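Q: Please design a sequence for this.
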């Protein structure tokens, strides 16, 4: 069903067991995922733009075709600041989905390549899956990077642990911005006695980010203390990959909260 998130039109998925997800057309941005206990799993800043003028600070920004400042284009790409189209939605029982598309004709500024970008969000009784498809619909090679820049809510930064990126559970005590190349596909986030399982495929890397106190103070769209309430664990394809004409790539992320 269509709803509104701030000033932005959004799609809401909901299941009889209480699980729900909200995705704005701006950025095809998952801004909320509540599990079957009604527990919100994603962080979103109280100061986030909700009007489409700037990227949303929190949830799951879709990063394409550039990661961070690794290129000459927009920081983290144009996908997160473009308005996507709802292609289809449906499902039944404990399995509902919404699928969004972005093509060159949707962009404010033209890009060099023809492409089709699709984001599918599937809500199930005990999980949420995001699939990102990049299709080279042009007649020349398409080089891109991609990520699902997920902001997870934690009870308290210092007690949370990211499991699977290093030999030991990773504790974040100050600013951290680290790329784990060739990351393993199953990662976990432990916080406040609960565990979130994050399973990625297609993406080769995982990025773990928290801005720490000083960088947060300098961010206009985050409150000073908010860095204590999230960790970004991002399935990513940091080094650009190249697709031949008519070829496609898929990156997936499946989240399930372990009770
Ligand atoms: O993925 C980590 C990162 O690239 C960091 O360097 C950090 O700045 C973050 O993304 C957020 O970027 P943004 O453009 O949303 O401020």
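A: Design:
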């Amino acid at each position: 069903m269509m709803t509104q998130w701030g000033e932005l039109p959004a799609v809401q998925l909901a299941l009889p067991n209480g699980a729900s997800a909200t995705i704005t057309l701006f950025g095809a941005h998952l801004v909320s995922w509540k599990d079957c206990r009604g527990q919100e799993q994603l962080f979103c800043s109280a100061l986030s733009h909700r009007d489409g003028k700037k990227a949303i600070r929190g949830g799951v920004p879709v990063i394409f075709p550039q990661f961070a400042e690794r290129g000459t284009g927009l920081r983290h790409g144009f996908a997160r600041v473009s308005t996507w189209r709802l292609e289809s939605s449906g499902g039944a029982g404990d399995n509902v989905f919404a699928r969004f598309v972005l093509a060159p004709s949707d962009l404010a500024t033209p890009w060099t390549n023809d492409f089709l970008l699709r984001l599918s969000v599937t809500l199930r009784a005990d999980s949420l899956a995001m699939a990102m498809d990049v299709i080279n619909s042009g007649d020349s090679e398409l080089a891109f990077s991609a990520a699902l820049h997920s902001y997870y809510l934690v009870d308290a930064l210092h007690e949370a642990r990211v499991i699977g990126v290093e030999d030991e559970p990773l504790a974040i005590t100050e600013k951290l911005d680290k790329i784990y190349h060739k990351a393993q596909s199953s990662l976990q986030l432990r916080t406040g006695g609960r565990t979130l399982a994050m399973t990625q495929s297609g993406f080769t890397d995982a990025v773990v980010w928290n801005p720490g106190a000083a960088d947060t103070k300098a961010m206009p769209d985050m409150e000073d203390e908010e860095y204590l309430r999230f960790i970004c664990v991002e399935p990513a394809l940091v080094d650009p990959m190249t697709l031949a004409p008519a070829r496609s790539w898929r990156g997936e992320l499946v989240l399930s909260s372990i009770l």
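Q: Thanks. Anything notable?
A: The mean pLDDT is 97. Helices lie at 212-217.
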